[in-house]
Specification:
five-stranded mixed β-sheet, 2 helices, 7 strands, alpha+beta, 137 residues
């Protein structure tokens, strides 16, 4: 059967693809993978940089590594939840650039939430992902 993934961006709603996400993603087949939130740290738990764009890039790199360990990749993400620290809320353009870079075609559905803070004060963004991979029967 395989996986069938289709994005929906009706012209009667805002064009969100230019911001790196789709309005909806429908998937048939496959198995769902729910990833824990990833932040801008490396394998040694060091913050990768002081800006939200660098941290978003690292968070997506971590997500890619996790998906690769399961036999998948970023193209199989169907939904992202971005939690942005309050004091970084006006730096969202760099996050949009990161999303557009990693999801140039048929990006996942995405929600953005401004939070008062994350677990560590230097963390500016947490990215939670849901993906659909080939079923491992």
């Amino acid at each position: 059967m395989g996986i069938h993934r289709e994005v929906f961006n009706p012209p009667a709603v805002a064009d969100t693809v230019k911001y790196g996400f789709s309005q909806a993603v429908m998937v048939r087949g496959g198995c769902c993978v729910y990833l824990s939130g990833q932040v801008g740290i490396d394998a040694e738990e060091r913050v990768v940089g002081p800006d939200i764009g660098t941290q978003a890039e690292a968070a997506l790199d971590n997500i890619a590594i996790i998906l690769e360990s399961l036999g998948g990749d970023l193209s199989q993400i169907v939904r992202l939840q971005l939690n942005v620290a309050e004091f970084a809320r006006y730096e969202q353009e760099s996050v949009t650039q990161v999303l557009c870079k990693h999801f140039p075609i048929d990006p996942p559905a995405t929600s953005w939430t401004i939070v008062c803070g994350l677990a560590e004060p230097e963390w500016l963004i947490e990215i939670v992902a849901e993906a659909v991979l080939e079923d491992l029967q």
